[in-house]
Structures are given as structure tokens and as C-alpha cells.
Amino acid sequence: MSSNKKYWKSVEELNENSSIVETLRNNEFVEEIPTDEFLGDAASLASSSTTRRDFLKYVGFSTAAATLAACEGPVHKSIPYVVQPEEIIPGLADYYATSFSDGFDFANILVKTREGRPIKVENNKIEGANFHANARVHASVLSLYDSLRLKTSKIAGKDTTWNEANAKIKASVAEAKAKGGKVVLLTNTSASPSTDRLIGQFLAANPNAKHVVYDAVSSSDALDAFQMVYGERALADYDFSKANTIVSVGADFLGDWQGGGFDAGYAQGRIPQNGKMSKHYQFEANMTLSGAAADKRVPMTVANQKQALVKIYNVITGAAVSTSKFEGEDVVTKAAQQLKAAGSKGVLVSGIDDKNAQLLVLAINRALSSEAFNPANSRQIRKGNNAEVKQLIADMNSGAVHTLIMNGVNPVYTLSNGAEFATALKKVKLAATFTMKEDETALASSVAVATPHYLESWGDVSIVKGQYAITQPTIRPLFDTVQFQDALLSWTGNAQTYYDYIRTSWSGAKSWNQLVHDGVAVSEAAAGAGAGADFNAAAGVLAKAKGTQTELVLYTKTGMGDGQQANNPWLQEFPDPITRASWDNYVTVSKADAEAWGLENWNVANGGLNGSYVTLSANGVKLEKVPVMIQPGQAKGTVGLALGYGRKASLKEEMQVGVNAYALYSNFNNVQSVSIEKEDGEHEFACVQLQKTLMGRGDIIKETSLEIFNTKDAAEWNVMPVVSLDHKEVAATSVDLWESFDRSIGHHFNLSIDLNACTGCGACVIACHAENNVPVVGKSEVRRSRDMHWLRIDRYYSSETTFEGDNKVKAASSGLMDSISTLREMEDPSENPQIAFQPVMCQHCNHAPCETVCPVAATSHGREGQNHMAYNRCVGTRYCANNCPYKVRRFNWFLYNKNEEFNYHMNDDLGRMALNPDVNLRSRGVMEKCSMCIQMTQATKLKAKNEGRLVKDGEFQTACSNACTSGAMVFGDVNDKESQVAKLAEDKRAYHLLEHIGTKPNVVYHVKVRN
Known about the structure:
Elements: E1 7-8, H1 19-26, H2 35-39, H3 42-47, H4 52-59, E2 93-101, E3 106-114, E4 117-123, H5 135-144, E5 154-155, E6 158-159, H6 162-179, E7 182-187, H7 193-205, E8 209-213, H8 220-230, E9 235-238, E10 245-249, H9 263-270, E11 279-284, H10 289-293, E12 296-299, H11 302-317, H12 329-342, E13 346-350, H13 355-368, E14 373-379, H14 386-397, E15 401-407, H15 411-414, H16 418-425, E16 430-435, H17 440-444, E17 447-450, E18 459-461, E19 467-471, H18 484-491, H19 498-505, H20 512-518, E20 520-522, H21 535-543, E21 551-556, H22 569-573, E22 581-582, E23 587-589, H23 591-597, E24 601-603, E25 609-618, E26 621-630, E27 638-643, E28 671-673, E29 675-687, E30 703-705, H24 706-711, H25 714-717, E31 722-725, E32 728-731, E33 749-754, H26 763-772, H27 779-783, E34 792-798, H28 803-812, H29 816-826, E35 835-840, H30 849-853, E36 859-861, E37 867-869, H31 879-883, E38 890-891, E39 927-928, H32 934-946, H33 959-963, E40 969-973, H34 980-985, E41 990-991, E42 1003-1006, E43 1008-1010
Parallel strand pairs: 7-8, 7-15, 10-11, 10-13, 11-12, 15-16, 16-17, 21-27, 23-26, 30-43, 33-42
Antiparallel strand pairs: 1-34, 2-3, 3-4, 5-6, 5-17, 9-14, 18-19, 19-20, 21-28, 22-29, 23-27, 24-25, 25-26, 25-29, 31-32, 33-40, 34-35, 36-37, 38-39, 41-42
Helix pairs in contact: 5-26, 7-18, 8-13, 11-12, 11-13, 11-21, 13-21
């Protein structure tokens, strides 16, 4: 049977009398263009040359389109090379294989450069390169051009040279050695074999020295558990493609849990093949990407999660550890039984910050002999040691630390007792920090050494045991910077450069040149064996854990992560996949708790979302004026808050947003007992959940259950809309208002989007920004519905906790009035809704309604299926946006380039180095939207033509399809009948968005199937 399931983006949409929703539905632009500002400028009018195009601007189809008055494209003069480098051909991109490693994120990537400038991150798809770029890694190229980077070393806040800074550090190390004082190296997780060797050599030369690893977001308990069982401080790796039953207890493995990167394997099992797909249970407090993807999600406090984990342990191993009663126990028992039945095809993961909980995870997966559980190729990341960090602070306070040298860390900001750390720094004889930014810790240190960006550096990284990856520079250092590794070489008396050190120490099967070309080398790895552990004792301790009245669950956002790239405007403007809010962090609260505490969210006339304020108190620390976001699916008795915000140092004023949640990250535990007090005032969110709504426009998301998918004909669950023709119902796609062209000759591009594989991660959104020079507009403009994203990922809530439950309720209704009443009741939000993500961009309709209404033919259709925009012809009438049923066109309200009002990367010379020269910057007053990356398809054709061959399947890509690691997006030529996209377009799950209106889009979606 088909689903007429009701979807809602926000609670406001459930109010049938809401004038706000009705206004947003019927009015694409809720605010008028401020025409007086421009038409009243006599100087601009007098200096304009009134061409026919200008005349149309002023008095033609829309006087509001005069926003381009007297503004023609700027002329830029360029200086050619005096001696052109051999490896650079103007107009052609070069790609370098490298690796990303910042202690929190790790990835094997390719970097696209143009005329010597890195401009885009892409995934390295060579065999062995298994860690792909997330949204933050894609955005990291913009952080290279951060105008607030530390440009030279500093001593006591004053500019100096590296030689002077190095001499001071060397003298302090020597003095400490002579006097018996401690020297401590405090670093993040480098995961770099060569760096570990250099640190080992430094420690050997300085017996009074110690190395402490500190990660802002700790995985120390999981590391301790793994070390106890397997004898090494590491994390287990998982391949979810090998699992038929997946149970997660508080682990957002599609997010940042243990380094992330699990989405590709997970998505393989989520696409129904041969009638089968994996079953996913999620028990969690906050609504996460993993919870959104789960077949069965149970909101649960962390205290109850611990009981649930013990319960699962009992079922799997046969143990009899007593547990307390808890809500959702029946679902946990069912999940445990299915997990046991799955045996080696089952896997369990947990994100609980407790060593005993992590021991049970290892015990359960060993008992299952889980194929998805991989302790041999362990992850060599997130190696911070909580106990050693606490001891370091104690030693600093006691005056035992003579010299402290830090690299890649910002403890004054990220430690919950950061102020105490800053005070302790004053008791250290010399504190030196190697950093890219003059951050909070650099300001508190006596020596700050400017370090290069990873795109300016040599290095190596071993993300998992058995994989070795290289980091190579893609541009000469922009500033007077020094790598920490070069400093270590200097301190140990080694005259080699770091590049020479890495090269001479490489001894793998590949040659050095081949390694640099590929970026990755792979070898065999074996699991270690530890002293073992008493799993029953661990279960007994965990079962006795008690909850608190209100739990604060700290987490990292998909966009911001641990906050290292807080000055990156792409990430600040990136809408959170779940809440759809940008430029903010906030407390997420369940609807039930919000009502009990008197907290509210409400929409205002322009679609903007407002909310209450609260003060959070935990362990004697208060966070005041924290905005509230009511989040469906949040477990009662819990609230969520994102880390990574609230920074001030080395950030532009526009990026100094939110509160610092690290202040509540006491003892490195992401769960804290918290009290909440409502504050006066209201907060304005930049939330896009009500903007560009498709509500009330028919089937947006099509979905069905696996049982129906396997037993019913596709016509029942993938319903083809019908229209009346000569008083007969016929398929909507068979009726045309236009005469169709013959599109069987040449290329015809389609983009396929599988709703089962899309996790909402947003990597495609940032990749689109980088490829297409999408401007950042800031919080105020986003709030006004003026964001410029060419690609958005709509997040829809469904009305029931299960798909089957929805259908049963609907099927049980009888008669018109009963059906209407039932559907209205189904629109009432569930406390635990299902979620669907749907990427939406220009659909490149073959019968595009935008093309027929453009008075100047600025938008037209190409022979290869793309809908084109001629920006020079566009006069900004906005007819096309009003006529677009998908709401995918963006109007340039302002000139975002070189504009002090938009002080982001396009407003300074350094930031503009990230711009793609293949895509022009759009002027004020024109419409823009997804081009299906026509510059990329043209380059692919040209390359094949120059090589005298046909284009191979998979060569055609867009920025979004190239960035998609889950395989949800596939792009290609449907006229190549052997291509993957042609087969996907003919799949029985394939459908087009709003098919009944007859636009014949070139973007194909696939029905979501729930197990």
C-alpha cells in the first residue's frame, strides 16, 4: 500500500490556522527589496548608461530589479608569469594526494589546486584510502586563507623570529635538564608515526621530559578498555557493511563518534538488495544523525542506557547481572535477542563515557564473533589520556613543571577548568605553544610559534593500524611558520628537514614517489592481546550506576566539531542537519520538559524562529543566557548542548557566537547533572526549517516498509500520480504541455539520490560552496530567508514512531470526516518521530516552469539536460523563483564580494584565494541556483577528447556527488545505458519530486525503505 504519511518541518506547521506558514507557502520573498535605497541614489542614476537592459531594470518588468543600477561586471587586470612553472598549465587543475589530521578529524583526501592555489578538497578513492572527508574537512581549505592566522612567532605578545623563539625554548629545555625540572610536551593526537619517533628521540635526549596526549573531546575510557583487553591504547574499527543487525547505545557513529567515517559501510547495508537490508536499533538521549537513520529509536537517559547495555550483555553472554527496571526495557530485550540471533552478522557500539561500559562493548562483540568488529586494524586516533592531563595540571600548580611545550591544543579554552590551567601556566618557567591561531592558550603563553596549515606541510599519518598515509604541501607557506616536527629535529640536534626525515624513514613496498602520488599505502596488521578483563565485574559496577534528575548530554555538532575551525564562515553558516539552525549553539529540550519548565519556541512573521533563554548550572559552574531549542526526540529528563562554540580569541566578531560548553565538560565526562532556570528575554535563531517549505505540495518523501517492498508490486508503494485526460485517469507523466526534444543523442545528465543512503551529513553542502563560490551571508540574512545555499538538505519529521503504526492508524479510519480527523491527529508531533533527509537542489526540469516565465530568457534549457543561467541577461524579476515549485532559486540581495557589510572570506584578499576561477562571482540583483556543476562536466568531456577516448562511467561528477561518501548521490549520463545512473533511473524505487506537476526533472529520488 502507498503512504500518504504527513510530514512536518516545525511545530508551527501543525497549527492549521497559522498565518505565518500560509504566508511563507504563498510568498517566496517575505520582505520587499529596499528599492528606495538604490533608486533614490541620484549619483548612481546619473552615472548609469541607459541601455535597453538598464531600461528594463528601471521601468520594465519590476522596478525592484534596479538593484543592479549602474553596476557592470568589474574589470580585473592580471599579471602573467615571467617564468611559468612547468607543472602549472593555466586553466587546468592539479590534484595532490594528501591527508587531513587535526587531532579530531582524519581523512585521506585529494586537494584541487588552480595556478598554485588549493581551492577544494575531494575524496581520495584509491584502494586503501578508506577515510573520507566530512563537512569540516571539506571546509578546511578555507581555513588555510584565514586572515586571522598567526603570521609570525611571538615572545610575550611581540613579533619575533623563529630563531629567537627557538633559542629561548632551547635554553629553557637545557636549564630544566641542568636543574632537574620537568619538561612536558603536551600535544593532540597526531596519529603520525614519524612524529611519535621524533618525540621518542626528544624524550631519550631529555630524561626529565614527558609526553602527554590531550584531546579536547576525550575517548579515554574507550582507549583504557581496549588497552586492557588488547594490550594497546587504541580504538576498535568497525565495518557496518558486514552487519545485518546493528545496536547502538548512545553512539552517534554516523556523526563524530570515535572519529566517524562509518557512513559508507553503513549505507551499503541500508540499501535493500535481494529483499534484505540491515536492522538498526538506536538507544540515545539527544536526537542524532544515527538516531535519525535508525529503524527503531528509543529516547533514553544515559543512566538507563547503562542498564540497557548490561541487559544486552546478559542476553548475549548468558550472564545474570541484575539490573534496575527502566523505560524501554522491552525494546532493549528484543534488540538483544535479534542481535544474538544475528551472531557474527551482528554488532554493538556504545558512546557511553565509562570504561566499564566500553569493556562490555568489547565483550559483546567478541561473544558474537562479530565480522563488523575489527580490533586488528585498530584506530590510532583520539589517544588523549585523561589521567595524565589531570596530573599535568597538578604538577604545574605545584611548580614541578619547568618548561611546557604545547602543539595542536588549546586547553585554556577546551578544558572545563581552563581558567585554572591559565593560572597554572604562570607558575611554569617557560610556556611555549605551536599554533596556527593566536588563541586563548597562545595569549597566555610566553612564546607562541606560528605553525603552517596542513596544506602547507609535510607529514604522515596512520589512521588505522596497517594504513600509512602521507601529507604533502600543496602551496608554499603563506606566512613565517615552522612545523612542530622541524622544531623537534632542531632540539635533538638533527640537521635534516622534516621532509628528508620522513623520506629516509620510509621502507614500504611502494617507492617514495608512488607513495606521494597515491597518498596511501596498506599493509597487514594483527590484533594484540592484553591481560584480559573481568567483564562480569564491569557489568556489576555499571548496573549500579544511578541517574540524576536532569542530565546534560554534551555533543559535537556536524558542522562545528570540537571548535578548531570556529573562524570558518562556511561551517558557521552550515545548517545543523537535525535542528536546521546555523550561527548558534543552544540547549535542546524535549517538548514535555519544555512545557514543565515554561520554555518556548515560536515563529515570527518573516519565518524566523525565536526561543527562551535558560541558565545552566553544573558542578558550581553557570552558563547564562543559553537559548533553548525544543527538539522532538530528545529524551525526557535530558538536555543537549554542543561543544566548540563560545570562542573569542583569534575570531572575527561575526564568528564569536554561542556559549562555551567545555566549561561544563567536567572530568571529561559528556554527561553532567544539571539544573535549569528560565531567564528573561527572547533569542533570535537563524533557522531555515520554515523557509522554502514544500508542505502541502503532494508526495515529497515516498517511503515504505521492507515487508511491503518485498511482497507488493511497486505500483502500490511507489504510486505514479494520475491526472484526468478526456475524463480518464492517466499517468501524469504521459501528459505534456510542451513538445519534447529528442534527447537520445549526446549526453543527458541525471543525478540520482537514494533516500536510504543519505545520512544528512552535509559534506555535499560544503563541497558545493567550495566548487561554486557560494557566498556567506551571515546570521541576520539567513534569518530573513536570504541564505544562498545552492543545495539544501531538508529534514522532515514523520508523525508516528513507526511507519507501520502510521499506516495502521490511517487504514483504521472510515468515511471522509473520520479520515480528515485522523489525518489531523497524525499531524500531531510524536515525542519520538521518524526522520527523513532529502537533499534538494535545482531539479533541472526538462519542462522547466522557470524558463517559460523569464522575460529576458536569462534561464534556458541545455541540450544535455541542464537548466542554464545567463547572469548577464538576468534583471532580477524573480518570476522564476515564484514559478519554481521546488524553491531552489536564490536571489542576490547584496553584492557579497568586497563588502564590509559581509566581512567573511570574500571581503579580504587572502580569503578570495579560495575562489574557483571556473565559476564567476554573481552580481547583486540576479538569480542563481545549482548549475549541476556544468564546469566539471565540460572539463571531463575536454579531458576525454584530448585523450581521444569516450568518457568512462563514473568520470562525470558534480561537487555533491563527488563529496557523497555514503553513495546516496550518483551522477552521470543516462544516455549511456550501461552507466550506474541509467540503471538507477530505471530502478523500481525511482521517482521524481512532485511528479504530478509534469516538470520532468533530471534529478531522480529513490523511495525510502524502512526495516
